[in-house]
Amino acid sequence: MCIAAAAFLTSCGVTKAPVMGAIYTDVISGTAVTSNKLATKVGTGKATGILGLFATGDASYQTAAKNAGITRITHVDERNYTILGIITTYETFVYGE
After folding, report:
1. CA end-to-end span of the chain, whole Å?
2. Alpha-carbon separation of residue 28 from 12, 25, 68, 85 (angstroms)
3. For the purposes of burial, counting CB atoms within 10 Å of the CB of 10, is it exposed (0-12), middle (13-18) or buried (19 or more)?
4. Which helix (H) or strand (E) holds 24?
5. Cα separation of 65 and 69, whole Å?
6. Separation between Cα atoms, residue 46 and residue 93, nearest integer Å
7. Number of Cα atoms under 13 Å in the Cβ half of residue 20
């Protein structure tokens, strides 16, 4: 039973990031860039997972842009955050006008 529990717990939540820490990750990176002029509006979208078992949220570009009333995207950043794979968060930041 201990081996089964250990195998189950090793598949905790992970997130997509350019670099990952085994214990803690909090990384912001660029995802996409357009030729549109830089802008000041920023919209966010967020999805969260717990233990790799439950996940909820909407971190899509479309939702992030809609949240800020953006119709022309200039660039997109993402934030990847996790602590021991227990809590995992992925955020999308969409910039534009």
Report:
1. 55
2. 21, 10, 20, 17
3. exposed
4. strand 24-33
5. 6
6. 9
7. 11
Please say whether the beta carbons of 16 and 80 come within 8 A. yes
Which tokens belong to 26?
A: 């909090």
Q: Which domain covers residue 34, as residue numbers?
A: 2-96
pLDDT on residue 92: 95
Tens of pLDDT, residue by residue, the chain (97 residues): 544 444 454 445 556 666 778 888 889 888 778 777 888 899 999 999 999 899 999 999 999 999 999 999 999 999 999 999 899 999 999 999 9
For residues 18 and 29, give the distance between their C-alpha atoms in angstroms, rounded to a whole number. Answer: 7
Record the tokens describing residue 69, joined without a space: 């009333």
Q: Which residues pair with 29 in a beta bridge?
A: 78
How many structural domains is the chain composed of?
1
> Residue 4 — φ and ψ, nearest 5°?
-65, -40
